[in-house]
Design a protein that fits this description.
The chain has two helices and six strands. It has 121 residues and is of the alpha+beta class.
Length: 121
Amino acid sequence: MTMSKFLFLLHDEDANLLEMPAETKQELFNRFVVWTESLKEKGVLRAVESLMDTGGSTLRRKRDELVVDGPYAELKEMVTGLFVVEVASRSDAEQLASGCPLLGVGGAVEVREIAPFPVQP
């Protein structure tokens, strides 16, 4: 069976993680640990990263100079983390993503298939 890699991009959306009380944030983190361990136990987890709350910067080329915007974090567009899983189909990936704890607090999970690239780490 051919397996494909999928990226889960976790978006804050209406979760308001920056304004969440510390106790609630810790409970959410604990649910993430359990969910992540379940992905690992199923043998599908390939990578996981949590991003800093401080936002980032965007680089663009304008004419002959490099322009850096930021650091900033637009809450509606803020990516809070990412997961890479390897499964047989998009529906399998979506099924796994549906268990993401961020969905229960107003966040969103974007599921994207990863295209093969000739250079690997």
